[in-house]
Design brief:
The structure is a homodimer. By secondary structure, chain A is an alpha/beta fold. Chain A has three domains: 4-54, Orthogonal Bundle (434 Repressor (Amino-terminal Domain)), CATH 1.10.260.40; 61-153 and 288-314, Response regulator (Rossmann fold, 3-Layer(aba) Sandwich); 155-286 and 317-332, 3-Layer(aba) Sandwich (Rossmann fold). Chain A is built from 15 helices and twelve strands. Chain A has helices at 4-11, 15-23, 30-43, 47-55, 72-87, 104-113, 129-132, 155-168, 190-201, 213-216, 221-230, 242-254, 273-276, 288-303, 322-325, and strands at residues 61-66, 91-96, 118-121, 137-140, 150-153, 174-180, 207-212, 236-239, 264-269, 282-285, 313-314, 317-319. In chain A, helix 12 (242-254) links the parallel strand 8 and strand 9. The first copy, chain A, starts with a helix and ends in an 8-residue tail after the last helix.
């Protein structure tokens, strides 16, 4: 880690001038500012971190790291986090990692230099312990290093509930279409285990068709087509996300089959897509509102040096809709 | 506007102590900080604004104001703005106004105190000229005061294209289902005019069913039901958003009608929902990628004191899918 003295030497100015620049004291010319900025960049010097540790100042800004703001799951997470932070008097500095090629350590460095009081991370990549140091962090549905609290839903139970719904509605050739990532720190993997366990317990074959989500860039028409081609007798499908389930439903209808009469479909997350779907979709519901409130509470407790003992694992429920039960249960609100 | 002297007087401390607190210089006790903060709050004093105008420092933070991060239109806007800002070395301070009860002036004040270099506003409410003062601002698909540049799509042409698609696919009883807001600064109103004009030019009756979007809190099942009940002979529907179109398609299928054989459906925005729809949906496409890049370019030009002359009005196109054309045109990518 560079020191303010090294920055001053490289920029050819006094330590006082660097300090005045960092603290916005007095007039510093634009060219001087740029010279000092260049020296700081070259030395990878992070000024605000120092200023912060000197002054103990809280900025009341929270960094939020998401891989994607377009996926309905993350857009709902952003919404709930924003509301909870606003109510608590905090603001959200949002980083969307999609397509930028940045890694998690890059983001942590950027957030540090913006003096955030803490971060909530929902990125797939691992944070580096040495980057985080004393920064308060809460992880959201991704497994980070041991000391970072992680807010999770009960993914294992979700897989079981989805399988049970297919069994309860009479499926005898159920299929699971599941998204996989190259990285292994996604607790959603547990959905596979819950599904396999419940289907095997019913004496049926736990068929699974895996989609490499990183390969398909959010357009799962081809993998949905391949899954149905490979298992043509399928009469019920559990998909590990509502996005995948939407493409699967599209493909089932395109093949001239009926939902739910010929094929029952269950999604996961229960955010937007299931109730906006042309045929309303049964889905495993995560209590995202409470999960986000808890993530914020847990982070603010760390920031304020308080103990936090509430449970970070949330139960899931199945929301039954027309894609497994038909329209007869549907009533307008 | 209060002065630092007034703050010092109210807090019963010296101007130097207030200044040291504002600039994070030296040690200030927590109780002293709180006393000064209280005085600043009572006087509505905005310290960073002063520090900023003194130092000409750029924070490379841009405030982004959206009414909602869950609606796919705004989640895509957030995504594109985030990418464009990241590429240009800027960060996004995101404010989601939904459900917080805050007004646009509140947000501008908050953003000012966080020293953003400028803001991009997609809120429905009007910004107040006196609040904005010299802050660089770009408006996105909302009409703000005269001097604020506004990035828009050609909503009038969008209404015409949608009407023409219904006419081209043989509709003789077309209907428009349109969202209305209490506020009048949404250029999307032009979609009504484009539709009416094209339908009347074809010698048909321009039926319009209006939905008060503020009343229904994003669940349009009842208004969709009412529209179809009121116009039972409808054979084609243009909806002013993909969200409304999704609920309308759901209701059409629930009534046992076929899409597109019995009822053709056209949405607007062409973000996520149309290609995730169980029956892929024809929609008026806004070039959100280019619109967001332009909003960022235009804002950074203001920040850097440069002229900006590129066009801020973007043409729209119709993306034809199964909801008007059936599956025969669909090929997997």
């Amino acid at each position: 880690m560079s020191t303010i003295k090294e920055v001053a030497e490289r920029a050819g100015v006094s330590v006082t001038t660097v300090s005045r620049t960092l603290n916005n004291r007095g007039y510093i010319s634009q060219s001087m500012r740029e010279r000092i900025q260049r020296a700081m960049d070259e030395l990878n010097y992070q000024p605000n971190e120092i200023a912060r540790s000197l002054s103990f100042q809280h900025t009341r800004m929270i960094g939020v790291l998401v891989p994607d703001s377009v996926n309905p799951f993350f857009s709902e997470v952003i919404d709930y986090l924003a509301r909870n932070l606003t109510v608590r008097g905090y603001k959200m500095l949002l980083y969307v990692a999609s397509g930028t090629g940045d890694t998690a350590p890059d983001y942590v460095a950027m957030l540090r230099s913006n003096q955030v009081d803490g971060i909530i991370v929902a990125l797939r990549s691992q944070l580096i312990e040495s980057e985080i140091r004393d920064l308060p962090v809460v992880s959201f549905e991704t497994l980070q290093t041991g000391r970072i609290p992680t807010v999770l839903c009960d993914n294992l139970q979700g897989g079981r509930l989805a399988a049970q719904e297919l069994l309860d509605t009479g499926c005898i050739h159920p299929l699971m279409v599941g998204g996989r990532h190259a990285t292994q720190n996604i607790p959603a993997f547990e959905r596979f285990n819950g599904y396999r366990e419940a289907i095997a317990a019913a004496g049926l074959e736990p068929r699974v068709h895996e989609i490499n989500e990183d390969e398909w860039e959010r357009d799962y028409r081809i993998p949905a087509h391949q899954a149905l081609e490979h298992y043509p007798d399928t009469d019920g499908i559990f998909c590990t996300s509502d996005v995948i389930a939407s493409y699967v439903m599209q493909e089932v209808l395109r093949l001239g089959k009926r939902v739910p009469e010929d094929v029952r479909i269950v999604g996961f997350n229960d955010v937007q897509l299931p109730y906006l779907s042309a045929i309303p979709m049964t889905s495993v519901h995560q209590p995202l509102d409470r999960m986000c409130a808890t993530a914020v509470d847990c982070l603010l407790a760390q920031i304020n040096g308080e103990e936090y003992h509430s449970d970070l694992l949330f139960p899931v429920e199945l929301t039954r809709r027309a894609s497994t039960r038909g329209y007869h249960d549907e009533v307008l609100p």
